[in-house]
Design a protein that fits this description.
Layout lengths: L2 H8 L2 H13 L14 E5 L7 H9 L5 E5 L26
Parallel strand pairs: 1-2
């Protein structure tokens, strides 16, 4: 089932719009300053709902963090993935 079909089957248009509006208004940026460990911020360039600028801002506000921009239509989707299409995050340690 495609994502759009799954959404249509899962909820009403009104409920989807309300969820989307709530997500657009949600701001947890004040928590970013609490991150004390090096972080790997991963952002999918194909994410139609969250712009890459947000991932860049988050990475810039965490000392010692790295930003990994992924250009993959299957990365972090709700659709199940086949073992042959799985990918791993970089294995090298994050260093300050």
């Amino acid at each position: 089932m495609r994502f759009a079909e799954w959404i249509r089957a899962s909820c009403s248009p009104e409920a989807y719009r309300a969820c989307y509006v709530a997500l657009e208004r949600y701001d947890a940026s004040h928590h970013v300053g609490c991150v004390a460990a090096p972080a790997l911020v991963i952002h999918n360039l194909r994410n139609r709902w969250v712009r890459a600028a947000l991932g860049q801002r988050i990475a810039a506000s965490i000392p010692g963090s790295r930003l990994l921009l992924v250009d993959d239509r299957e990365f972090a989707t709700l659709a199940p993935r086949s073992p042959s299409s799985s990918r791993e995050a970089p294995r090298e340690p994050l260093r300050r």
